[in-house]
Write a structure and sequence with these properties.
five-stranded antiparallel beta sheet; globular
Amino acid sequence: MAAEKRASAKKRFPAASPLTPEQTTAWVRTYGRHSRIYAWSFFALILPVILGLIWWEMGEINEDVIYSFGFAAAVTFLLARWSRKQTTQSWTGVVEELFMKKVRASRDGNQSDDITYSPRAKVRTRGGKALTLRLSEALYGYFAPGDMVFKVSGLDWPEKAELDREERVCLACGNLYAHGAGTCPRCRAPEPDHDTLLRLVK
């Protein structure tokens, strides 16, 4: 009975397979377009919240509220634009160094500051530009100095140019998953064709 149920489940929910080259190209374009829509929609939604907070603090709509809102909106716009610029860049480079950056977080009162360490990677692009990437702990162990890596415009995470391990990076969420899984188990993003990704960068 249990075997029959498993067989029935497999028929109804067949295992996902990696994308074809054509599907990979279409997915990258769609993901990038949706990413832009979500980013600017969030910016549009946050503006009324900023105005409401300033209005609540000041108690009335006056010239100071308008100036404060304009300044906050401009800063938010610049941050959103900078963030989008980082995401929309395509590049290929070499990992020069992996290191842990000390991050100090201040605490209230007389308590000592919290100190944590955040994984980073220094990458030198083909154009000679030096990039410092923030990594997860899993990716800190995945990459190594000397690895050729790349990032596709519209996607959020880098990947090795040559897949030399049994795992690969989900370019949507940064998770590691096994080759041939078809989808990322964390975010359910599809598994793209690696050679097609490399062609999209060039």
